[in-house]
Amino acid sequence: MSVATLPQVRGKLTENAALDRLVWFKTGGPADWLFEPKDVDDLQNFLRDLDPEIAVWPLGLGSNLVIRDGGKRGVVVRLGKAFAGIETVSKGRFGIDNVLICDAGAPGISAASMARDHGIAGLEFLRGIPGTIGGAVRMNAGAYGREVSDILIEADIVDRSGERKTLSLSDMGYTYRHSELPEGAIVVGATFRGSDGDPETIGAEMKRIADEREASQPLRTKTGGSTFKNPDGHKAWQLVDAAGCRGLQVGQAQVSEKHCNFLINLGGATSADIEALGEEVRRRVKKHSGIELQWEIQRVGETA
Description:
Elements: E1 12-17, E2 31-36, H1 40-49, E3 56-59, E4 65-67, E5 72-78, E6 86-91, E7 96-103, H2 108-117, E8 120-121, H3 133-139, E9 142-143, E10 146-147, E11 152-158, E12 164-168, E13 186-193, E14 195-196, H4 199-216, E15 222-223, H5 236-242, E16 249-250, E17 253-255, E18 263-265, H6 271-289, E19 298-300
Parallel strand pairs: 2-5, 3-5, 4-19
Antiparallel strand pairs: 1-2, 6-7, 7-13, 8-14, 9-10, 11-12, 11-13, 15-18, 16-17, 17-18
């Protein structure tokens, strides 16, 4: 796949692009191509004219993600600052107040802060989600008792053929940390519903969330966020701890001693180390408790 076979773009198109610098674990191989579109029209035109046999995959802030050491085939699409807008609307076509409209590249913390500044309650939990709005919408991200499906009105996507579509909440097929978005579809925006709130009270709740994360999670390490989904009636970290996995290591990958549902790169880990460690944790938890943990972190790409 040469540049001559790819559509013309107004944004940035990089061949053999390093992805390790773009993900939290700081591991993984390159993308065949990295496309950073200038705007939605640029994205639509690119996808419309791209050979349909070429795979397309969206990358946000790189949290909750392992890029395998062999890299990612096809085109990785990264929505940058041009996709980071956030606005509030009153009434409008939704007929309700306390509506927040976000571009998909906006970080969750930015959305929560905008909601606070405009007295919109109910979106504070986005402060505890380390990725972009696009990623949060795709995986029905959640924290501190709430998830995206609780607040989403609709999402805007560009599908693999380049067509822009608006999906309602019911179209998303949400379950726990999962949606039924079509293969190759890229979220470009989302509209959220909140409620009347006091900015000071909202800010205090956001601070509580931030302080709790800082105290309980290894945020200042190379990590990927919560590794495993919480099984019904259980906390993943407690199952991992009970199975004796706190501090367990494979190569330079380790189960965090601060929070057992986080894996960390001690400095020289490969993505293979991280994935092997996760699988060993799953094996030990299954043997100890009979419960089979499911990955929450997305693992993509080719093995080395």
